[in-house]
Fold this sequence. Notes:
The protein is α+β, with helices and mostly antiparallel strands. The chain folds into 2 domains: 41-80 and 278-316, no CATH class; 85-277 and 321-334, von Willebrand factor, type A domain (Rossmann fold, 3-Layer(aba) Sandwich). It is 34% helix and 24% strand. It contains 8 helices and 18 strands. The protein has helices at residues 4-37, 101-115, 141-149, 159-170, 195-204, 219-225, 241-250, 262-278, and strands spanning 41-48, 63-67, 70-72, 76-78, 85-91, 121-127, 132-133, 135-138, 178-184, 208-213, 229-231, 237-239, 256-257, 280-284, 295-302, 308-310, 314-316, 333-334. β9, α5 and β10 (208-213) form a beta-alpha-beta unit. α2 (101-115) runs antiparallel to α3 (141-149), α2 (101-115) packs parallel to α8 and α4 (159-170) runs parallel beside α5. The longest helix has 34 residues, at 4-37. The termini are far apart.
Amino acid sequence: MFSAGIIQxxxxxxxxxxxxxxxxxxxxxxxxxxxxxxxLVTVGVQVTDWLGRDxxxxxxxxxxxxxxxxxxxxxxxxxxxxxxxxxxxxxxSDSMSYNAKLDRAKEAAVALVRSARDGSEYFYLxxxxxxxxxxxxxxxxxxxxxxxxxxxxxxxxxxxxxxxEGLSRSATAHQPRQVLxxxxxxxxQHSIHPLAEVIRKVRDAKLQVYTIGYFGKDxxxxxxxxxxxxxxxxxxxxxxxxxxxxxxxxxxxAEAFFPRxxxxxxxxxxxxxxxxxxxxxxxxxxxxxxxxxxxxxxRVDVRGGRYGVRARPGYSTSSNSSSSxxxxxxPGQSQSRSD
Length: 339
């Protein structure tokens, strides 16, 4: 027969074990809840050989991805074409009337919509000195094509406001891979938001921004020779649109194009469509960060050859990325530029 002291001691040990088990279960539950609440980061990766040709046939074991220098477990991998969220931002400013550029740009936009895989979703944001949501997120490409066909010439250029609204729309997308394509021909002179804010938001986002600078034949060499700023006839300084478009593309792991003819414009569209079809897709859970606004630097390494690798350089864990940057507008209505 056990003494009362032994029974009491065993009871205390059993109670301690139970408390430990409960604590471990709570910890595991908290970790699992946290993991569910952390969204996967999806990264499109373009791999080329030393001649610049696409490299296909690589496997997940060829890839390593680093978040702030720390290797991450690749949760999902695909080398197949996937549905995407495609947002098209089309400049309809009055300068697009030169040489029927708006018509060519609309044709390019339609070609991009038709190149996306079935199951993709789209939205369309034409802009002049106002941002105009012409078609919100939809899986119906014909709705987007109809909206593009109805685009007419407008006034000035509010590119930065358009990009920010495009980021906001993309934040509500259903597809993990999100892409903005910008077709524009001039310098921003009418946006509420400055370029620095736009660059920061693009760097923070988890999408790619392809850009097409469809400049006039006299403007293109001038923009190419100039620095980050241009001085207008009235003495005002504006951002060089060539620098802006290249910076937006580079900071999102995409590519910028500056066609000098209709043929080169069509080639740029084909290149973007091909890029989206042939990219590898990697996804991982970001490490938990105390600072929810921290910027994470990304690096993707590929083993097995002398490869060129293009992917976005980083992203932010900010929870504010889904907020609207301009006043919400219904399709067909302009975004308000007054606060």
